[in-house]
Amino acid sequence: MKSLLLAAGLGTRLRPLTNTTPKCLVTIKDQVLLGIWLDRLTQAGIESFLINTHHLSDQVESYIKSNIYSDKVTLVHEEKLLGTAGTLIANLNFFEGQDGLLVHADNYCLANFHDFIQAHNQRPSHCVITMMTFRSETPNACGIVELDAEGVVVGFHEKVVNPPGNLANGAVYILSSELIHMLATDLYNVSDFSTEVLQNLVGRIYTYETTEYFIDIGSPETYCKANSN
User: Fold this and answer.
1) N or C: at which end does the chain have fewer Cβ atoms within 10 angstroms?
2) By the 8 A CB rule, do 3 and 104 touch?
3) What is the tally of structural domains in the chain?
C-alpha cells in the first residue's frame, strides 16, 4: 500500500514558529513530525510515499534527502496550493489503481496502523473509504461524526457550538480503489476533501476509532501539550 502525505500547509495557527519552520518539520519530543509519520507508516507496511510541498519547501526537501526513508519518498512541489482534494486528484496515478492512504500529516498520531488497515479490509461492502476517528477533548473545534450501528458515518458536524458527541474525524483515510476511480471520473473538479468529497460519501464511510494518542497540533497550546504528554 502507498500513502499520500499532505504536508504543504502554511501552519498559520502555529505562527511565529511556522514563519521559519514548515509545520511538518516541527518537533515532538525531539522527533520531527514528518519523520514520525514515515517511521510509523513504514512499520505498518506502507511501501512508498508521495509528499506535497509548498511553504519553505527547501527545508522539506533537505530533510527528506537526509532521511533514512528517502528512497521511499517522492516529493511534488505546488507553486500554488491545490487544496486537499486537488492534490489528491492531481496525483491519483501514484496509487496505480490500488487502495491507498491519504494523511493530513500535521497531526500527532500514535495509532496502530496495522489495526487500521485490517479494519479497512473488513469494512462493510458498500463503504468506499475508511476514516480514522478519535475522541476529542475540544469537540467544538473539530469535525464531529455521527455513526450508525455498523460504524458508518451518517452525519458531520464541523466546528459547531454544541456537537452531538466528541468522536472526531482524524483526517487519516484509506481510500478504496473504487473511490480512486470515482475521483478520477466523477469528482475530478473538486479541491477540498472534507467539504466536496466526504460530504458526497455520507453512508459510505466506514470508521476506525483509535484509542492511542492523537492530537491536532495546530495551535501553540496543543503543540505544547503534545510535547509535554
Assistant:
1) C
2) no
3) 1
pLDDT tens digits for 149-184?
A: 999 999 999 888 888 889 999 999 999 999 999 999
- In whole angstroms, give the CA distance from residue 229 to residue 221: 12
Amino acid in the structure at residue 152? V
pLDDT for 41-52, tens place per residue?
Answer: 999 999 999 999
pLDDT digits (tens, 9 = 90+) for 103-125: 999 899 999 999 999 999 999 99
Of 13, 3, 7, 191, give the one whose Cα is nearest residue 98. Answer: 3
pLDDT for 64-108, tens place per residue? 999 999 999 999 999 999 999 999 999 999 999 999 999 999 899
* CATH code of the domain covering residue 94: 3.90.550.10
Q: Write out the residue range of the structural domain in which residue 197 sits.
A: 2-228
Please report which residue ranges of the chain form alpha helices under DSSP H: 17-20, 33-43, 57-66, 84-90, 113-121, 177-185, 220-228
